[in-house]
Amino acid sequence: MRRSxxxxxxxxxxxxxPNQRVQPPQLTKPMIxxxxxxxxxxxxxxxxxxxxxxxxxxxxxxxxEFFNSLGFRSRLPVQLLSVTHCDILDEDGRRAMRxxxxxxxx
Length: 106
Description:
Layout (H helix, E strand, L loop, with lengths): L47 H10 L2 H13 L3 H9 L6 H14 L2
């Protein structure tokens, strides 16, 4: 019968107690941050409702930038005309468009 060798750990080595929480070592120097640009293209399909939810998550300055970006596009008047003639635009949507126009004129 072959016996396994007996391993004896040095006196300074101790097995961790499974019931004791192990604290991570404290770093004496801050870690270095390495930045590398990674480009990856992912297609994300959002519904109109999800885009509206994202808009409401923005603060007022980001919402202003959003409207600035819309205004920068030269097709906006044509697009607004197309939206007003769309069959699925309901009274809530028309009211929102009217309110935007009223506030923008102030």
